[in-house]
Design brief:
Layout: E1 4-7, E2 10-13, E3 18-24, E4 33-39, E5 46-51, E6 57-59, E7 67-72, E8 77-82, E9 91-98, H1 105-108, E10 116-117, E11 121-126
Parallel strand pairs: 2-11
Antiparallel strand pairs: 1-3, 3-8, 4-5, 4-9, 5-6, 7-8, 9-10, 9-11
Amino acid sequence: QVQLVETGGGLVRTGGSLRLSCAASGRTFSRYTMGWFRQAPGKEREFVAAISWNGFIYYADSVKGRFTISRDNAKNTVYLQMNSLKFEDTAVYYCAAAGGFISTSQRMADGTQYEYWGQGTQVTVSS
């Protein structure tokens, strides 16, 4: 069982930055693929970024060049650095963990591949 707790959300102006953190319980964190997803009001959940156990990284096109995902296995934590934020980045951001072997970008972006989810943290970007 893995528990995930996201922190770092908040209100920021367009063009600003935020860093989200996701702290995971459990001793096998380093074996998990970790992903960030988001859901805006009235919209479906969408993939943002993911990092595999061996460091492979994949981003959604909408955040490429602006967001950076990283992990610190010693701290059981995954991060999402968000720069140049836009109004359309406003959403609840969720951290997720996948314990199975995920070998393709397509699967990394597929929310059904992830067994564990955090409760989410709100990010609001104002103009």
